Amino acid sequence: MTDAAPLAVRAADERDVTYYGLPSVKPSLWGGLVSGYMFVAGVGGSAQIIATAADRALTPIIRNGRYIALAATVLGGPLLIIDLHTPQRWYNMLRIFRKTSPMSIGTWVLMSFGSLSAALAAAQFAADHGHSPSRTMQTVIKLLDVPAALAGMAMSTYTGALLSATSTPLWAAAPRRIAAAFGASAMASGAAALTIAEQGCGAPDTGRALDRIALVASAVELFLLLSLRQRFREQGVDSALNETGWGLAYDLGVMALGAGVPILHHVESVIGPERAPRRALIISLAVLAGGFLLRHGLLRAGNISAKRPKDYFRLTGRVPQ
Amino acid sequence: MAPFQSNWLMMSDVCKHCSPAPCLEACPTGAIFRTEFDTVVVQQDICNGCGYCVPACPFGIVGVSLEDGKAHKCTLCYDRLKGGLEPACAKSCPTDSIQFGALDELHARAQRRVEELHTKGVENAYLYGAPGGPGATDGLRQLNAFFLLTAAPETYNLPRTPSRPVERIGPSLTSGLATVAGLALASLILFAARRGDRR
């Protein structure tokens, strides 16, 4: 229909042409509240997954997992509501379910996970305070465990799809890897949160089990983080990281301290004769800090990339057929 | 031939009222909808200012007002259209460069104009946003507000091959869920192995 001849070849002097360096798209208005939610959602969702997967004899893990999952929803929901620019209309999110919108998908994931967490935590609370549930209640609770874990999986990763289903260069460049990295990071953070919680209960057996899970999750996370950094470079959108402090935050804070050092600790912990509980606590805090920094760093660097027309045009500059 | 129009490039950087519209597809409250005129409008009484439409738009059109806390964008003068009038930009344009009308008629008229310009020696004239051409790529079937341009899209601050963000959701969720499911399975195995160790 149209004559594409003028655009068949992009001349050398056309590369990196912009309109006086002005941005072509707008950055999101999101900040620490949204990255805070993404982090908290991942920790809670993954803590529930681990609690569901756990051996029924490991009651501390199950108990802590359920309470962490509930705490995540109780903390996360208000973070999102406060971030709205017309917060008094927050319930309008519940008017529809729109499968083309990760934010709509996420609203209902949060509602499902929140309801299931609340039910499981209530049951846990009753059991902890001597009210042993009837047989029917016990079956109901057992039936809720798997759906809660499934909702927890969605909680741990949908925020990656939320970022990538936009026109922000940094996020749009790596839809698969961002979501995968968020998922692995969430599982590592979930294990870390449970390790911290278990320090209070002091059950060494549960600590060992969590160590192995944390090792696998952190190893997968580090691999995905490296892969993600590579993808940004390939797509030509990594200037927002390299030319700002967020690149260093990613390399040093998220990869090295948030995943690399914990891996070394977990390997030593798994093959060695004794656990070092105090070091495990510090390492777990590092994993949590790395988890938050991953989301916050990508959010802030993404907003910077949206203001860089060269990055956007590199992503949207293929020769159309 | 001397540079066409002394190389002055003009473009009304209006909302493209895309079909499908990324802002509409991103809106979680249903505030953004498609009108009977095939335009895209934000309902001010429903929007809660989540701001997801802002980074979704491939053309950087939608904005959120920090004064009233809602998303705003060109409505193609919805109120004037309901009254049978043309949008204000089309009415005020003194050279009738901005034209309003039925889309297929406009496509035909624009294509004729491009061919006319080609015969006059303006070989770089092309349509941006017409189906199948630059601007209407990767899931964005067409831009209901389309343009006749005479230089590279980037010179006008337009992306050459914008994409529909929705197409990234499937791959993203699949990869993310697969990763988490894999680690969940690993957790199950590690817990079971631990139980095996103890016995």
Based on the model shown, name its key terms:
heterodimer; A: 321 residues; 11 helices; B: 199 residues; two-stranded antiparallel ribbon; 6 helices
Please characterize this protein's 3D structure.
The complex is a heterodimer of chains A (321) and B (199). Chain A is mostly helical and 321 residues long. Chain A is 73% helix and 0% strand. Chain A is globular. The longest helix of chain B has 30 residues, at 169-198. The mean pLDDT of chain B is 94. In chain B, strands 1-7 form a two-stranded antiparallel sheet. At the A-B interface, helix 1, helix 3, helix 4, helix 6 and helix 7 of A face helix 1, helix 2, strand 4, helix 5 and helix 6 of B.
Q: How many helical elements of chain A?
A: 11
What string, H for helix and E for strand, traces the elements of chain A in order? HHHHHHHHHHH
> Taking Cα atoms only, what radius of gyration of chain B do you get, to the nearest Å?
23 Å
Evaluate the radius of gyration of chain A. Answer: 22 Å
Low-confidence segments of chain B: none
Largest sheet of chain B, order of strands side by side? 1-7
**How many DSSP-defined strands of chain B?**
8
Largest interface: A-B, 92 and 83 residues
Indicate the multimeric state.
Answer: heterodimer
Average per-residue pLDDT of chain A, rounded, comes to: 91
Please describe the biggest sheet of chain B, giving its number of strands, its sense, and whether it closes into a barrel: 2 strands, antiparallel
Share of helical residues of chain B: 25-40%
Q: How many β-strands of chain A, per DSSP?
A: 0
Strand content of chain B: 5-15%
Classification by helices and strands of chain A:
mainly alpha
Distance between the termini of chain B: 89 Å
Report mean pLDDT of chain B, rounded to a whole number: 94
Provide the β-strand percentage band of chain A: under 5%
